[in-house]
Automatic annotation (TrEMBL):
Organism field: Aeromicrobium phoceense
Keyword Membrane: yes
Transmembrane feature ranges: 12-33
PANTHER family, per the entry: MUREIN HYDROLASE ACTIVATOR ENVC, PEPTIDASE-RELATED
Name of this chain's protein: M23 family metallopeptidase
Amino acid sequence: MDDMTTRGSGRWRRAISGLFPLWAWLFLASVVAGFVLDVPIGVTSLAVLVFFALCLVRPARQDDRGPVVVDCPVRGTWTVVHSPASSVPSHGVRGYGQSHAIDIIHPRADGTEPSYPLFGGFERPESFSSFGESIHAVAGGTVVTVLETRRDHLSRTSWLAFAYMMVIDGLRDLGGAAAVVGNHVVIDHGEGVYSLYAHVRKGSAAVAVGDRVVAGQVLGEVGNSGNTSEPHLHVQLMDHAAPLRAAGLPMLFSGIKQPEGAVDRGWTKKEPETGIEPGMPANFQVFEA
């Protein structure tokens, strides 16, 4: 693994960002207070603005640093949703150190029409082929975080289920990083680089805090815990062990095969990107590892 130097820490921004759940709760409390308490509107309005502004503080961006080259965390044939090769931040937000995160999932069967039904969509995670697949360490290092006690919930693969996810799961931010990324493993690779593997299957962690791991070692299994619509692996590199205090780091996967023109058309009616960025598939491109 190369290019593992880290830059200015921006400690105050990390400290504020790390308290995001507190600011979010205080923001909501200020909104409620403005309606139910006999408090001057100027006071509550100021509190709302201050706590909302604090919710938006993030660590300094690391977008312009060279990508860290790591091993691929999965084996076999996969496709990508939310790739930094398509946009940065890849998930639309920079919170939780996920500006350059990637979601990896099994391709849909050939001939699958992209569709999103109005009803249904609450399926058991075991019905998805990605569920239970092995997750591998992208590089050697020391395990600093393991969480494997959160449940693998039902999928959210219809408009009704998606609305449920936005309303109910949207409140996960109030519970901190673990409520969002679900069961997860974090590895310290040294020189300010950490990898995070999210939505791990409940009870599947194959490592413990303090373990030394090598590249390719099995860490656990793909699950459906946390803020997720169906089983997949969310993986990212970041510059701090705590996602709320971290900025995302660019990365590339070594040794993957990216067949020209191999795309998964089962996800979107738009034509997927076909231009290849070596080491980082774009959205809906199929790759082999």
